[in-house]
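Lecture 7 notes: from sequence to structure.

We start with a single chain of 412 residues. Read the sequence below before looking at the structure.
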Amino acid sequence: MTGPLPAPGHMGVDYEQRVDFARLRDYRLSRARAALESSECGAFLLFDFYNIRYVTQTWIGGALGDKMTRYALLTRGGPARLWDFGSAARHHRLYSPWLDPADCHAGMLGLRGAIAPTAGLMAEAIRQIKGMLADEGLADAPVGVDLVEPPFLFEMQRQGLRVVDAQQLMLDARQIKSSDEIMLLTQAAAMVDGVYQDIVEALKPGIRENEIVALANKRLYEMGSDQVEAINAVSGERCNPHPHNFSDRLIRPGDQAFFDIIHSFNGYRTCYYRTFSVGSATAAQREAYVKAREWMDASIAMIKPGVGTDQVAAVWPEATSFGFENEMAAFGLQFGHGLGLGLHERPIISRLNSMREPIELQPGMVFALETYCPASDGFSAARIEEEVVVTPEGCRVLTLFPAQDLVVANAY
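Now the structure, written as tokens:
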């Protein structure tokens, strides 16, 4: 099958098979449990809010979700337990029936230090966790932690817990996507397909980069996005070097401009660049785009099960060949990164790391491939990104807005 992957819509319906959220929850929890069982750990204590969502199937907004106060405990043979921000715990008891209400606790550790550790909240939380581990016969087993504030780590150690790294295990668990996850990722990409049509129509001299960002945010939330994480809008002389942000710059006739739209649908993210010229394009701009497209097509051609990420990275140019002193300085320009609940999951593909420690591509991996080529005029540049899924037959592309050739918006 070579057509687009299904992106059937936002609603569940009785006349089509769409995302099965119960199946999605079961899949994610089973992957996390398998990672725990394969480890030396008696439990995972999770603060990374993507890992919390993966294990507990709960979410609250990023304003609270990233303050290191939500956490989840997954023990061998035990239920997933959650400590959440105040009244969110009561909401989960009412609306998250896959969790036992007794396992949904209100929790507070300090909001990244705003409440000092001397208040004792961390010490109390760790005593509670130790009691649960002791009740399940896991008192002497290591505890795997993904992310942690230093005072919490020090208190765990002071109370006699042996802490090991769980993030590597959780990232391994998350890297193979189920059919439901792939459908959600495809739906998220389809939303951006539509936003790029709006951007092309709006991309005229006199509009500012931040106005394009506002347009994209508005359209994504209207379409059902649950979080617009970031939008890069880069034009004219700001294209080279790539600043990875947006400004209030006025877009001018003949500019080259590129955009990256990062949002999530039901938690599943996009990272989706497109480059345009405004009104007209110069020979230097077209030449840069052709090179970026050639590098992109070469990497897509490599994507199939059994290929190493070092082999993918090898088809991209070395940093010194496009104006950078080394691979660290050019990191993120010729680049691949896993997509899922997080923006940067496994595999990470680049000349910086993949030549040292390649990862074998497997069916079910979903990741973005990014290329960048500075133009010979010294200030323009082309940036292309495609999201792909590895299938047993090879590679399928999720991002469908036309990018084989440079699109000139509102040509004169």
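The CA atoms of residues 239 and 380 lie 5 Å apart. Keep this in mind for problem set 3.
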